[in-house]
What we know:
Layout: H1 2-9, E1 17-18, H2 21-24, E2 42-44, H3 49-62, E3 66-69, E4 86-89, E5 96-100, E6 105-108, H4 114-122, E7 126-127, H5 140-146, H6 153-156, E8 163-169, E9 175-179, H7 191-195, E10 204-211, E11 213-214, E12 220-226, H8 229-241, E13 248-253, H9 254-264, E14 274-280, H10 285-299, E15 303-306, H11 310-328, E16 332-335, E17 338-339, H12 345-359, E18 362-368, E19 373-380, H13 385-404, H14 420-427, H15 429-442
Parallel strand pairs: 2-4, 3-4
Antiparallel strand pairs: 1-2, 5-6, 6-10, 7-11, 8-9, 8-10, 12-14, 12-15, 13-14, 13-18, 16-19, 17-19, 18-19
Amino acid sequence: xxxxxxxxxxxxxxxxxxxxxxxxxxxxRDMAGFxxxxxxxxxxxxxxxxQVQHVMRVATELRVPVVPQGARTGxxxxxxxxxxCVVLSLVKLNRILEIDPVNRIAVVExxxxxxxxxxxxxxxxxSYPPDPSSWESCTIGGNIGxxxxxxxxxxxxxxxxxxxxxxxxxxxxxxxxxxRRTAKGVAGYDLTRLFVGSEGTLGxxxxxxxxxxxxxxxxxxxxxxxxxxxxxxxxxxxxxARGLTPSLMELMDAVSVRAVNELGQMGLPESTQALxxxxxxxPDRVGELARVAELCRAAGATEVVPAEDxxxxxxxxxxxxxxxxxxxxLGTTMIDDVAVPRSRLAEMLNGVxxxxxxxxxxxxxxxxxxxxxxxxxxxxxxxxxxxAVRAQRSFDDIMALGLExxxxxxxxxGVGLLKRDWLARELGPVALELQRQLKGVFDPLxxxxxxxxx
Length: 454
């Protein structure tokens, strides 16, 4: 290891090479459960693109695996270390390099925190829409690596739709520039999109050109209570079928509603089996909410509460923000991420409830209902070996259910280690082999984040 650390130190700033095991252990994993993590040989903190190139050249020459990391808020094990690796932390490449209001782009380094970028462009009347739940701490590089989503995806889409171009350090240290700064551009294969969601297995993103949008008006929201998941699912389908475009549409099942009631004293009746939250930020917010209220009542809602202003909207949406903390109080949580067609959303919620009963566990579901992305949250006692086994089995059953309903094993959290075996089932042998061949083109030695995805 001495040769490795000495070689790395030659091209990095003082203190940027860390071998203290107490420190390196903290960089061994992300926030995913049930994922093995190795022991890194060293953690490095480059501050420039050239320093990242130096790290990759040394790693290639010495045939040492490299695991790129952002803020380690991921939920798939994609940032977990492997034994003897170089953990390449990109948190010090954290500059917003440019904001161009005319062309509506931002150029940033990967360590920029999502919320920092959002607040900075907001001062110019612009927005960067992708908003993962961890936006106060997650980095743009991590968002790009996992293809992150968020609460507003139903209207504004996910990270991949905002990445126009990238600078990427390849496994051998070469610097590749992809994409464009223009509003349109179709020259050559779309390598930019290939890197988005690749979880650091093809290259290390060191700079990104991101599309910006005009800042929207404040959201106006409503909450609708339903006696069943079927009724709530029918309301979701009606809203989308009528051509409405909410800026947010979230659905919580009975387990989540009860947990939020207990934590936040929200006053929701025990009979509520599903809670639908819908918001609009367009010029006709009041009229659109009124139409949604009618559709919800027609679908069987027992109560519909529209907000009259932003303050009331914030109070209504507080229930959704409390869902994860409320479920966390019940035990160890394992968060799944399965997306299904919107038309199958009720089947997904009912199926998860059946899985929970079959395994004798509590499973709550919060969903980005507008795009069919569900987050079943398995709750168990991590100290109870039998419960831990049942939790893992229920997790697998949930993914199988998602595929059976025509969905995908991950809508926004990524594959990493957690879902690697399931990726093969979703893709099939031909697509999997092609993905492995692509990996070989970009990383012929297999040193970039080995063992993840394919």
